[in-house]
Amino acid sequence: MGQSLASKAISGLKWNTVSTIANAVMQIGYTSIMARLLDPEAFGLVAISIIILQFGGYFANMGLNKAIIQIEELKKEHIRAAFTSSFLLGLAFTGLVWVLAPLAAQLFKNPDVAPVVRIMSFTFLVNGMSATAFSLLERNMRFKAISILETSSYVISYLGIGVLLAYLDFGVYSLILASLSQATIVAIGSYAIVRHNIIMLFDWSAWKPLFSYGSKMSVNSLLEWLSSSLPSILIGRLLGDYKLGIYDRAHKLVSLPMYMLTRTISKVIFPSFSKMQSDNEKLGKVYLSSITLVIALIIPACAGIFVAAPEIVYVLLGKQWGESVPILQILSFAVALNLITMFAGIICDAKAALNSKIVLNIVFVSVLGILMYVLRGFGLQGFAVAFLVAEVVRILFYQRAMHKILALKYRQQLSVYLPGLINGAVIGVLLYLFSSFLRTTALSPLLILGVQMLTGAVLLAVLSLLFPHKILKAEIQTMLSKTGLPEKISTRSGRAFQLYKSYILNTK
């Protein structure tokens, strides 16, 4: 990366990290509060509605937001064309979903689905008006503005409007209106910052390069939606709202923190990867470095979630959600694998290698469907296991894609998993033994969970920072060697950092 791009990436990581931590904490609190104010059926209804809206969303956007970021030479005409198409498609799909909402209710055998879907259909219109402005913020790597906008909108919409409406007994509509409120605030805020031209343009020469890339992105996004939504679709139709609510909360408990963790990096690396798309060697090194660091965090974190699942569910959701515990344990690793492969997917997007990604996603959906059919008799746990096994298959296929696109050897790609797998195994075993002892005491679940989190964090810090695997150590050494400090360090934290830097760089 050039110096300017590198500095923007570092600044973006800093702001996204702050935003991620803040949003993760708020989402945990919000989930805990709403799980006590609402019943599982409310979450099941919203989960069904989100599935339908996500399906329509891939056609309503046509991948134009990614095209705005990926295209090497962006012109004013491209911006006007993107806004025109996003707005009109958003308007059209709002009307279409409103009309077809009763069919969705019939599909899921629940008449309550129709009014929920109709209200949430306005998300298409709001997102259609904001997609271009938000994509321009990402393309220009203005992550400070994005972080402030997303965090403040979450506080107002979810912690303010959502919780208040749930307390006033608005039920499922408290979840819906909170979501719509945040989308509206983000739309207004992003345009206020960018202020791009909103005069519509109907010129195919300006639309063509965007749709050439965006249409393939849309197909890929649709396939990814199908792969992630297939369990919810089948559970909602075969087992009902209650079971879907149980599955959805378990999935959210692990996917939200994991998503926020990887999102911090992914939001920065897509525009960064796009800017270096012509340099395969450099792109390959950055890709391997990125997933080495992410895997070293994600796998140990998921091992901790697996062990602490009973306390997590009891504290955050309440004892009435006990059925979610085994589902959370299985999904903790399935979601982790899903998020790891996301980086390979971003490489395909940045390199415009979308045909390979389409084939890969078709294979994944097919494998997932077959596994779900085979394991359907095992209920929710069967669906969760199917998701986990399918993610392992997806990783193998993405390794083949990275070998073809970036000429990365299979041994290189497999080796980056070692630090995370070793640390995850050590942390999982030690935390399990310690947790087994804690559960025999009279300590409350909240206190046990706090001790588990502290113990896991300490173990992860010791293993990753003081005694890192040689592959992880090489990445840490590379980062530290590029970090300069003034000769005279007056702060305690500065001196501590310098001591650590000297320790890592001078140990074999």
UniProtKB/TrEMBL annotation:
Write down the membrane topology. Multi-pass membrane protein
Keyword set, alphabetical order: Cell membrane, Membrane, Transmembrane, Transmembrane helix
> InterPro entries recorded for this chain?
Poly_Biosynth_Transport
Q: Where is this gene product found?
A: Cell membrane
Q: What is its main location?
A: membrane
Looking at the UniProt entry, the stretches that span the membrane are: 42-60, 81-104, 116-136, 148-167, 173-194, 286-307, 327-346, 358-375, 381-402, 414-434, 446-467
Which is a Pfam family this sequence falls into?
Polysacc_synt_3
Q: Which PANTHER family match?
A: LIPOPOLYSACCHARIDE BIOSYNTHESIS PROTEIN WZXC, PST FAMILY PREDICTED COLANIC ACID TRANSPORTER
The record's family statement is: Belongs to the polysaccharide synthase family.
Name recorded for this polypeptide: Lipopolysaccharide biosynthesis protein
Q: Which organism is it from?
A: Pontibacter populi
Q: What is the lineage of its organism?
A: Bacteria, Pseudomonadati, Bacteroidota, Cytophagia, Cytophagales
